Amino acid sequence: MAQNGSSNGPDERKPSEAGDAELSRRLGSLDSKLRDVEARKGSVRKTEDQSPQMSGIGQAFRLSTEFIAGIIVGGGAGWALDRWAGTRPWGMIVLLLLGTCAGFFNVARAAGLMKSRTGDKSGAK
């Protein structure tokens, strides 16, 4: 059985106006369903965007942890320097003050009070 390119089998359909109308109707139905799904996704995204990034108590906990960590690291490094070099109490005093300054700097950075120089595109120096 040779096929010459023109088959009139049941799987081959010729386009007709009735078929085009049915296709247009199905396409319109699919388009409306797609818009509904996108609208639902958009409303979910809007509600997520409106929620705060971090609760107030969570932010306070983070800021206090940043501050205390700076003090503890500075004090620990000062204590270790004093034991190693025998400069008691000057190493601990100096590094504890530096740790406190680092703690303040970390709190200001975490709170968003200071802008990163690489992220600042305002042109101000």
UniProtKB/TrEMBL annotation:
Which cellular component terms (GO) are annotated to the entry?
Answer: proton-transporting ATP synthase complex
Query: What are the Basic and acidic residues biased-composition ranges?
Result: 10-25, 32-49
Q: Where is this region: Disordered?
A: 1-56
TM annotation in the entry: 60-81, 87-108
BP terms from Gene Ontology? proton transmembrane transport
Keyword list, A-Z: Hydrogen ion transport, Ion transport, Membrane, Transmembrane, Transmembrane helix, Transport
Q: Which Pfam families match?
A: ATPase_gene1 (PF09527)
Instruction: Report the superkingdom from the record.
Output: Bacteria
UniProt signal peptide: none
Q: Which InterPro entries match?
A: Atp1_alphaprobac, ATPase_put
Report the function annotation for this chain.
A possible function for this protein is to guide the assembly of the membrane sector of the ATPase enzyme complex.
Q: Can you tell me which family this protein belongs to?
A: Belongs to the bacterial AtpI family.
**What is the protein's given name?**
ATP synthase protein I
* Organism of origin: Bosea caraganae
